[in-house]
Design a protein that fits this description.
42% of the residues lie in helices and 21% in strands. With 176 residues, the chain is of the alpha+beta class. The chain has 2 domains: 105 residues, 2-Layer Sandwich (Beta Polymerase, domain 2), CATH 3.30.460; 56 residues, no CATH class. Strand 4 and strand 5 form a beta hairpin.
Amino acid sequence: MFETIDYLQFGNKNQKRAFLAIENLGIIHSLSEYHPILCGTLPIGIDILGSDLDIIMNVVEFTSFEKKVTAFFGNHHDFKLKKTSIRNVPVIKANFTFEGFEFEIFGQPQPVKEQYAYIHMIIENTILNHNPCLKDEVIKLKEQGLKTEPAFCKLLGLEGDPYESLLEFGKSKQII
């Protein structure tokens, strides 16, 4: 379902706005060789004011990716590019704003469907589909300052590192 952004056209008001912004930006087409997928809260309808649009990609060669991202999006407001490491995996991130949305382009040398952002979104979406009443509670916790994964863990009674706990929950429920 999340391989393309077409579903956003039929979503809530913010999802429709995001669809147009992403299309107008041309990011999916411009960086298609990196298999971009929109992840995070907006695709599953639990975004709040200030939620960004996370687009994850499989990036092996950082130098050419950096040049392309800078050439395509470097002129956008608040453009920043950063290389770092998360869980001992090198990542490259670009952030900027466009049409009222903060974008985060996130690349790491791993297929997108194996990245935490995608797996967490699939787990969270499945939880919400089975328990629609949790949606408002997750949003409320997010508005109080909790990040998404910690909010889900709190509601599910999961302890420990929320990012790992959510993965283990997904595995135990055979979601992933």
